[in-house]
Amino acid sequence: MSAINKLGIKYSVEYGKPFGCSKCGKRYKRKIHLNSHLKYECGVRPQFVCELCSRAFHQKSNLKAHINVVHFKMKRSSQGQTQYNNSSDAEDTTIMDVFYE
Fold first, then answer.
1. Please, is 92 exposed, middle or buried when counting C-beta atoms within 10 Å of its C-beta (0-12, 13-18, 19+)?
2. Which of residues 6 and 52 earns the better pLDDT score?
3. Phi (first) and psi of residue 38, to 5 degrees
4. pLDDT value at residue 23
5. Are 39 and 29 in contact (CB under 8 A)?
6. Which of 11, 29, 49, 81 is the least crowded, having the fewest Cβ atoms under 10 Å away?
7. Rounded Cα gap, residues 21 and 91, in angstroms
8. What is the mean pLDDT of residues 80-90?
9. Contact, 74 vs 82, CB < 8 A?
10. Per the record's keyword annotation, is Metal-binding included, yes or no (predicted)?
11. Residue 85: which pLDDT band, with cuts at 50, 70 and 90?
12. What 3-state class would DSSP assign to 14?
């Protein structure tokens, strides 16, 4: 089942994702997310590379999450505080500063 929104765009009512990629068919609720998909993901090589292990990501946020989880092993405690499980906090801070500019 489909409908037409205020802008005259036909979309799928079942999923509420009116914006679809013409290349891969992936659908998005917001046009800005489709534009981001087209610019950084669909048919594009990953451009954000981890300098610690060379793994590549399509989105910078995924690279940051990878670095935090895999290389810094960040965990949230039950009190909401961040804990680091690396041996050298000074080295970690220096590396983290590079990725969070």
1. middle
2. 52
3. -65, -35
4. 92
5. no
6. 81
7. 42
8. 50
9. yes
10. yes
11. low
12. coil
pLDDT of residue 51: 94
Retrieve residue 59's tokens: 């989105």
DSSP result, 25-77:
--EESSHHHHHHHHHHTTT----EE-TTT--EESSHHHHHHHIIIIIS--EE-
Matching residue, tokens 């990629």: 21
Place of tokens 């048919």: 43
- Please name the residues in contact with 77: beta carbons below 8 A apart, sequence gap of 6 or more: 83
Prediction pTM value: 0.54
Q: How many CA atoms are closer than 13 Å to the CA of 74, on its beta-carbon side?
A: 14
Mean pLDDT of the chain: 75
